[in-house]
Sequence to fold (229 residues):
Amino acid sequence: DTGVSQNPRHKITKRGQNVTFRCDPISEHNRLYWYRQTLGQGPEFLTYFQNEAQLEKSRLLSDRFSAERPKGSFSTLEIQRTEQGDSAMYLCASSLSFGGAPDTQYFGPGTRLTVL
Amino acid sequence: KNQVEQSPQSLIILEGKNCTLQCNYTVSPFSNLRWYKQDTGRGPVSLTIMTFSENTKSNGRYTATLDADTKQSSLHITASQLSDSASYICVVSAEGGSYIPTFGRGTSLIVHP
Fold:
């Protein structure tokens, strides 16, 4: 499978615990995006990387959230001291971007987080 | 404040019928508008991307239109199929150095046999 993969697919945790999600983009895609989606809503942008550089962070990304893409390939999203409001589907997308043209983003299946 | 409003919120049609979904936005300055299809429990799939200079773009039975003057877009689905049942999401990005897209809440389409 050469698409975007995310692990784990489901995560149940207790409030206050830390969780980490992984995203493996399509090979050679230089951009990687993280989004969050709650039930019945459209996705919300969290952050994105161009290679290993984190270029944008949404105001939604509080201090408890951190994302990395250390070698410009896979990325991790960590949530510290989880809260019930963090329960959502966390989506990753990747794209191959040239210059300023809008890029086609390919989404992974998501990681569904439930905070008890 | 940048906003994207989609209508209707939900739609039920019979297989083989056509339908049109609407997207109104206040994002400024405009850069591009995307339509995605999202099946339940899965990630969105890109259908079309349009920039300011494009007013129509097709992808099979899906045709998107854009009126940048009135800040409106529509997604027309022709000869609907059961597999078209999904949520359709409109996303608008602003021009400038930063990429922070504004997502609509989506239109839930159900196609009945």
In short: The two ends of chain B are 41 Å apart (CA to CA). Chain B touches chain A through 23 residues (CB under 8 Å). The longest strand of chain B covers residues 30-38. Chain B has a mean pLDDT of 94.
